[in-house]
């Protein structure tokens, strides 16, 4: 999860998030290069006497500053499109979870386990145990296996919500009357936090998402479902 004074992105827990972080660093280096070239050109313009009249008709220079920006855009667009298509792929998921947004809590349904359904509310401050996180912990966590393709079916019962877990690279809108889906494969066990990322009313800030990722062998044992 994020911590105080953090500058970069959260550590990746899925292949998609690793790709997003790599693309972020790639685009950032291009932005730094553009900023450096623009500042260098401004510095030369302010400190150099413009006495050379030969630059009034420099077709080679015009060709370069036309082709160079187009090349930079291609270098940014190609990896971006690749990741965009990767996020839409659904490759034979092993487990399907349905998430329904309400004002202001989430309902989860394990469709592959006899229709197990439970609500997930934010823990009030009076019920927090030592080590719990204020405004982030919930009474019922979503327990999922690692290294297993998982499909999330996301919808809403009242207003627009957004199911987002940054460390997994997930952010999918929950729309009333529409069923959106996203897939992910977690690579590390642990507890990961997210929040509703769509302004959905007065208590929008109090709709946390908590995923507890465990090894597949432990998940298949079953006691994690005794809520």
From TrEMBL:
<dbReference type="InterPro" id="IPR034210">
    <property type="entry name" value="CcO_II_C"/>
</dbReference>
<dbReference type="InterPro" id="IPR011759">
    <property type="entry name" value="Cyt_c_oxidase_su2_TM_dom"/>
</dbReference>
<dbReference type="InterPro" id="IPR008972">
    <property type="entry name" value="Cupredoxin"/>
</dbReference>
<keyword id="KW-0999">Mitochondrion inner membrane</keyword>
<feature type="transmembrane region" description="Helical">
    <location>
        <begin position="66"/>
        <end position="85"/>
    </location>
</feature>
<feature type="domain" description="Cytochrome oxidase subunit II transmembrane region profile">
    <location>
        <begin position="1"/>
        <end position="91"/>
    </location>
</feature>
<feature type="transmembrane region" description="Helical">
    <location>
        <begin position="27"/>
        <end position="46"/>
    </location>
</feature>
<keyword id="KW-0460">Magnesium</keyword>
<feature type="domain" description="Cytochrome oxidase subunit II copper A binding">
    <location>
        <begin position="92"/>
        <end position="225"/>
    </location>
</feature>
<keyword id="KW-0186">Copper</keyword>
<dbReference type="InterPro" id="IPR002429">
    <property type="entry name" value="CcO_II-like_C"/>
</dbReference>
<comment type="function">
    <text>Component of the cytochrome c oxidase, the last enzyme in the mitochondrial electron transport chain which drives oxidative phosphorylation. The respiratory chain contains 3 multisubunit complexes succinate dehydrogenase (complex II, CII), ubiquinol-cytochrome c oxidoreductase (cytochrome b-c1 complex, complex III, CIII) and cytochrome c oxidase (complex IV, CIV), that cooperate to transfer electrons derived from NADH and succinate to molecular oxygen, creating an electrochemical gradient over the inner membrane that drives transmembrane transport and the ATP synthase.</text>
</comment>
<dbReference type="InterPro" id="IPR036257">
    <property type="entry name" value="Cyt_c_oxidase_su2_TM_sf"/>
</dbReference>
<dbReference type="InterPro" id="IPR001505">
    <property type="entry name" value="Copper_CuA"/>
</dbReference>
<keyword id="KW-0496">Mitochondrion</keyword>
<dbReference type="Pfam" id="PF00116">
    <property type="entry name" value="COX2"/>
</dbReference>
<dbReference type="GO" id="GO:0005507">
    <property type="term" value="F:copper ion binding"/>
</dbReference>
<dbReference type="GO" id="GO:0004129">
    <property type="term" value="F:cytochrome-c oxidase activity"/>
</dbReference>
<dbReference type="InterPro" id="IPR045187">
    <property type="entry name" value="CcO_II"/>
</dbReference>
<dbReference type="InterPro" id="IPR014222">
    <property type="entry name" value="Cyt_c_oxidase_su2"/>
</dbReference>
<keyword id="KW-0812">Transmembrane</keyword>
<protein>
    <recommendedName>
        <fullName>Cytochrome c oxidase subunit 2</fullName>
    </recommendedName>
</protein>
<dbReference type="Pfam" id="PF02790">
    <property type="entry name" value="COX2_TM"/>
</dbReference>
<dbReference type="GO" id="GO:0005743">
    <property type="term" value="C:mitochondrial inner membrane"/>
</dbReference>
<keyword id="KW-1278">Translocase</keyword>
<keyword id="KW-0479">Metal-binding</keyword>
<keyword id="KW-0472">Membrane</keyword>
<dbReference type="GO" id="GO:0022900">
    <property type="term" value="P:electron transport chain"/>
</dbReference>
<comment type="similarity">
    <text>Belongs to the cytochrome c oxidase subunit 2 family.</text>
</comment>
<keyword id="KW-0249">Electron transport</keyword>
<keyword id="KW-1133">Transmembrane helix</keyword>
<dbReference type="GO" id="GO:0016491">
    <property type="term" value="F:oxidoreductase activity"/>
</dbReference>
<keyword id="KW-0813">Transport</keyword>
<keyword id="KW-0679">Respiratory chain</keyword>
């Amino acid at each position: 999860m994020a911590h105080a004074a953090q500058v970069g992105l959260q550590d990746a827990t899925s292949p998609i998030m690793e790709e997003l972080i790599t693309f972020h660093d790639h685009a950032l280096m291009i932005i730094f290069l553009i900023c450096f070239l623009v500042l260098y050109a401004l510095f030369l313009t302010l400190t150099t006497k413009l006495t050379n009249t030969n630059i009034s008709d420099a077709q080679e220079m015009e060709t370069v500053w036309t082709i160079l920006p187009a090349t930079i855009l291609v270098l940014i667009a190609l990896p971006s499109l690749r990741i965009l298509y990767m996020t839409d792929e659904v490759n034979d998921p092993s487990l399907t979870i349905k998430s329904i947004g309400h004002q202001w809590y989430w309902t989860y349904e394990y469709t592959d386990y006899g229709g197990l359904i439970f609500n997930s509310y934010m823990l009030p401050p009076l019920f927090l145990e030592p080590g719990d996180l204020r405004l982030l912990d919930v009474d019922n966590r979503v327990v999922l296996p690692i290294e297993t393709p998982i499909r999330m079916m996301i919808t809403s019962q009242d207003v627009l919500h957004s199911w987002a877990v940054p460390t997994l690279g997930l952010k999918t809108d929950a729309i009333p009357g529409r069923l959106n889906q996203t897939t992910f494969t977690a690579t590390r066990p642990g507890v990961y936090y997210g929040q509703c990322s769509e302004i959905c009313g007065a208590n929008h800030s109090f709709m946390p998402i908590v995923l507890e990722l465990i090894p597949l062998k432990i998940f298949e044992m079953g006691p994690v479902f005794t809520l």
